[in-house]
Amino acid sequence: MVPSTRPVRERTCARVLPVNAAGEVLLLHGWDPADPGSPYWFTIGGGVEPGEPLVDAAAREMHEETGVQVAPGDLVGPLHRETVAFDWGPWHLVQDQTYFAVRLDLAPGQEVHFGGLEPLEVGTIDRAAWWTPEALDEDGTAVSGDLTRIMRTAVDAVGGGR
Fold first, then answer.
1. Cα–Cα distance measured from residue 23 to residue 154, given in angstroms and rounded to the nearest whole number
2. Which domain covers residue 45, as residue numbers?
3. For residue 115, what pLDDT is reported?
């Protein structure tokens, strides 16, 4: 692997895995703006503001990235924590990520939208879809090899598929 030439940006992130009654997890599809030819599926979430509790950041990110409002008290977890490093936009990000799950069954007419994306995110996320861990394993387009394991933990935590 070639070392990144992008400046390092360290940050703390809160991530959300919404799980529906069928045991599917809502994921986003997007890419590094510097490499649009290599898209992948990833979890909802992003940077924590100074002094912001992780669970509040997770709920805020859920709303910003999907248009769907969830209460911090509805989030289950933390389920998983990891540090990852990857290139995105102008940076080499080193992120301390904490994951939460939430049971989410969209009401008729309720849709995911990207109206709250940050300017740099606009044009790098093109859709959202519900995935089972098994289907995403088969598809092979997860952002990381750990994603489907974390998805299974989220499904178990909120009783999805039961």
1. 9
2. 8-105+117-158
3. 84
